[in-house]
Amino acid sequence: MSEALYNTSSVLVLPDFNLSTEAVFPAFLFASLSYMIIFFCNLILILTIVLNKSLHHPMYLILLNLPIHDLIGASAFFPQFIKQILTGSRTTQYSTCVAQAFFIHIYAGGTVFTLTAMAYDRYIAICCPLKYNSVMTNAHVMRLITGVWVCSLVTIGLLFILLLRLPRCRYEFTNSYCDNPSLLSLVCADTTINNIYGLFLVAITQVIANGMILYTYLQILVACFRSKGTDTKAKALQTCATHLAVFLLLECLGLFTIISYRIQGISPQLRKFLGMCTLIFPPTLNPIIYGLRTQEIREKFVHFIKNKILPFGAF
C-alpha cells in the first residue's frame, strides 16, 4: 500500500510484535489479566473512599484522583494493545492514535500533579499540624483538586494543539503505543516550537513539581526526627514512605522513558519496554500499596467487603 494512500485515509502502521502462534494466547492472557487487576483494584480503592464518609478527609480526597488517573491511562493503553495481539492488525486510525496519546499524557501529567498536591497536604499535616484544619478546608481541597485537573488538561491540551497543526508525511510507528514523541516523528515540518514546549513541560513536571515533592518530604523527615512522640513519628514515616514509593516508581520509569526519546541510538525494544512498564506497573501497584499500607483504607475496605459484598453472596 502506498504512502499516499495511508496519508489520505489517515491510517498509521504500528510495529509488529512478532508473536508466534503459540505466544498469542499467553500474551493475550497477560494483557487481559493485567488490565482486569488494574481496573478492579483501582475501582475498589475509588469506591472505598467515596462510600465511606469517614475517609472524606483532605488526604483521601486528593488521593482519590490517583486511581482515576490510573484508570484513564490503563484504559487508553490496554484495549488497543489487546486488540492488536488478538487480531494481529498493524494499522490504526490517526484519530484513534491521537486520542490514545492524549489520555496517556493526561494520566502521566495528572499523576505527577496529584502526587504534588498529596505531598503538600502531608507537609501541612506534619510540619504545621496546628494550622492544618484552618489551611486544608474543603474549599481549599477543592481548589487543589481543580488545579490538578486544570493544569493537566491545559498543558496537555496545548501540547496536542501544537501537534495537530503540523502536516504528516510518514505513517510508520516504532513505538508500541501512541504518544506525543511518536506522533511528532511522523511530522514533516519544523517542530522547534513543539520541542521547546515539550522541554517546558518536562521542566514543570521533572524540575518544579518533583522539586516541590522532594523538598516537602525532606522537611517532613526532618520534622519526624525532631518529634518526641514515637507513635506520631512512626505513623508519619509510614505515610511518607508509602507516598515516596509511589512517587519514585513513577518517576524512575517516566524519567527513563523521557531520556530514551532523547537518545537517538537507544534500542527501540528498550524504549517500548520502558514505556509499557510506565503504563503497567504504577497503575497496578498504586492501589495495592495504598490499600495495604494505609491502615484506614485497609480497615474500611475490609468493613466494606464484610457488610456490603458478603451479605449479597449469602443469597
SSE layout and pairings?
Layout: H1 3-9, E1 11-13, H2 21-51, H3 58-63, H4 65-87, E2 91-93, H5 94-127, H6 132-135, H7 138-164, H8 180-184, H9 192-226, H10 230-262, H11 268-293, H12 295-313
Antiparallel strand pairs: 1-2
How is this structure best described in words?
The protein is built from 12 helices and 2 strands, in the order αβαααβαααααααα. It has a single domain, classed as Rhopdopsin 7-helix transmembrane proteins (Up-down Bundle). Helices cover 79% and strands 2% of the residues. The protein is an all-alpha fold and 315 residues long. It has helices at 3-9, 21-51, 58-63, 65-87, 94-127, 132-135, 138-164, 180-184, 192-226, 230-262, 268-293, 295-313, and strands spanning 11-13, 91-93. Mean pLDDT is 83; it is low at 1-9. It has a two-stranded antiparallel ribbon with strand order 1-2.
